[in-house]
Design a protein that fits this description.
single chain, alpha+beta, minor pseudopilin epsh fold, 5-stranded antiparallel sheet, 10 helices, binds fe (iii) ion
Length: 280
């Protein structure tokens, strides 16, 4: 992320599909100072280190990904002087489990090449630096604090965002939530149908690469989008759900029809169980 992109992102946080001018003031770009970690979302990558004074967190991802099931670090990174600290965790389902809405071909490329590359690059960039050995969650938050770490932030945040994205989907997902979550959606969006329309449209309207999120802003559910690698984790927003609107997420299956991809995500893949777990 260069300076131009960084300032652009700070200005262009979209809340509920509406541009919030001066969002950098409301959502400090570098809110990840130690001791003021902003969210309790399930952190992808390594288990988080819990510093005194940090916000309460959900159980670490080990609950979903037992330690024994985690792969060892990629051999190509573990060579020579590059100790690996962040693992490329397994998908929570088979590569063909989301078909026909997301094909095995897309997941093989997206998870197996794009996500893997972000993990590998992050591990390379932290080698020999004070970031070495830190959890992915920590690397994202700490590298967001200075433009000199922009390259590391972009790769680490993309690694984090993708891990969160895999968990945001499940086979036979989608549709309206039930119970307390339905009441919450109704309260903050008016209805499930209004939430659905806004989430899809935010994805359609997002210019170029980025992410669409359902987040908790203090006590209110909101839909926001972020550009490039930017992530709510560093904006004092608690991520609950995300979908990837980079072209590599859908182009093999949907070509340029991003609305069809966003609609399939909401109607057939969205993992409300993950949202509920993140809400606590
Ligand atoms: Fe992606």
């Amino acid at each position: 992320m260069n300076d131009h992109q960084d300032s652009k992102l700070s200005r262009r946080i979209l809340v509920g599909g509406a541009l919030v001018a001066g969002a950098a003031t409301l959502l400090p770009r570098f809110a990840a100072a130690q001791g003021s970690a902003p969210t309790g979302a399930i952190p992808p990558g390594n288990p988080p280190s819990t510093a005194p004074g940090t916000a309460p967190r959900l159980p670490p991802p080990a609950a979903k990904f037992p330690e024994a099931a985690r792969p060892s670090a990629p051999a190509e990174i573990n060579a020579a002087t590059a100790p690996v600290s962040i693992a490329h965790r397994p998908l929570p389902y088979a590569e063909n489990a989301l078909a026909p809405y997301i094909s095995a071909n897309t997941l093989a490329t997206h998870y197996g090449k794009h996500h893997k590359a972000y993990i590998e690059k992050t591990n390379t960039l932290v080698t020999g630096t004070p970031f070495a050995g830190k959890s992915l969650d920590e690397v994202v938050k700490r590298s967001a604090k200075g433009k000199q770490h922009a390259k590391l932030f972009n790769n680490a945040a993309q690694a984090w965002n993708h891990d969160f994205y895999w968990q945001s989907m499940k086979p036979k997902g989608g549709g309206a939530p039930t119970g307390a979550l339905k009441e919450r959606i109704d309260k903050d969006f008016g209805s499930y149908e209004a939430f659905r329309e806004k989430f899809i449209q935010t994805g359609v309207d997002h210019f170029s690469n980025g992410w669409v999120w359902l987040v908790l802003d203090k006590t209110k559910l909101k839909i926001v989008d972020t550009h490039d690698a930017d992530t709510p984790v560093v904006h004092r927003l608690k991520p609950l759900l995300t979908t990837d609107v980079w072209e590599h997420a859908y182009y093999l299956d949907y070509k340029n029809l991003r609305k069809d991809y966003a609609t399939a995500f909401v109607d057939h893949l969205l993992n409300w169980d993950f949202v509920s777990a993140n809400l606590g």
